[in-house]
Design goal:
The complex is a heterodimer of chains A (96) and B (166). Chain A is mainly α and 96 residues long. Helices cover 77% and strands 0% of the residues of chain A. The longest helix of chain B is centred in the C-terminal third of the chain and has 32 residues. Classes of the chains: A mainly alpha (96), B mainly alpha (166). At the A-B interface, helix 1, helix 4 and helix 5 of A face helix 3 and helix 7 of B.
């Protein structure tokens, strides 16, 4: 039962964050087909292919895996610490 | 976000990424390996000596390659290879640990994480990195690491109930 509640909490947290990201979007995610249908100029279309053309919403989403990795690694280190305290300390140093 | 605004020069942080991540994953892999051995009633080896010796050798060889030929990416490849191997091995250990402790959901979540990592590797090698593809990659990355975080959370709850040195 507790496991299901934990899963619901996680899902709500992710949903709230996604809503924040979506609301921060000033325009829909562009794609080449959309730009072509809007008859944008070639240079504007090519802008969509420029690598690392990051937007703020994309940067916000990029932060999510970092957050989840940090939570996961710290929990793994704590899990190790419950079985062997010394190994747990080493794992925590590694996770950090 | 600082990078997206172009306000801060963080190239040094990018160059130092593997220097920090490779030793970290080695320490994590070693610790997870030893507790898996311990749970399977095999003797656990010293917590820090072996991984520290390995990390020292790895950093020394990488440093030597960098000083010998700074333009070559070989020094970075050494660290990257160790990091990838340690990540993969840790993932496999956690999958096996999950299934052996009769936690199939945990095992499957760790499998989804590993599959996501390999999928991203393939997508990142594509020549044209459009913004739309970046969104797909970030979404896969997010789901993959959410699975990892949730599986780790479940595993921690399990060890709290069944093992307890603290």
């Amino acid at each position: 039962m507790r496991g299901k509640e934990g899963l619901v909490d996680w899902c709500i947290g992710v949903l709230v964050y996604w809503l924040l990201v979506i609301t921060s979007l000033q325009s829909p995610v562009p794609s080449l087909s959309i730009s072509q249908s809007l008859n944008l100029s070639i240079s504007q279309s090519l802008n969509l292919l420029i690598p690392m053309n990051y937007t703020l919403p994309l940067a916000l989403v990029d932060f999510l895996p970092v957050l989840f990795t940090a939570i996961g690694l710290v929990n793994i280190a704590r899990m190790v610490g419950h079985i062997s305290r010394k190994h747990g300390q080493v794992a925590l140093v590694g996770a950090i | 976000m600082a990078s997206s605004g172009g306000a801060t020069d963080i190239r040094w942080l990018d160059a130092g990424l593997f220097v920090w991540m490779a030793p970290g994953y080695v320490l994590l892999f070693w610790s997870v390996w030893q507790i898996v051995r311990g749970v399977n009633r095999k003797p656990m080896l010293n917590a820090s000596i072996m991984p520290l010796v390995f990390i020292g050798l790895m950093l020394a060889s990488s440093g030597y390659l960098y000083t010998a030929n700074p333009d070559s990416p070989a020094w970075e490849r050494v660290l990257l290879s160790v990091m990838v191997l340690a990540t993969f091995a840790t993932g496999i250990l956690l999958i096996v640990f999950g299934f052996r402790q009769k936690l199939p959901r945990v095992g499957w979540l760790f499998i989804v994480n590993l599959v996501g990592i390999f999928l991203l590797n393939g997508l990142a090698r594509m020549d044209e990195q459009t913004i739309a593809l970046q969104w797909v990659e970030e979404s896969i990355n997010t789901v993959s690491w959410l699975c990892f975080a949730f599986a780790a959370h479940k595993l921690l709850a399990f060890t709290r109930r069944n093992f307890g040195v603290q």
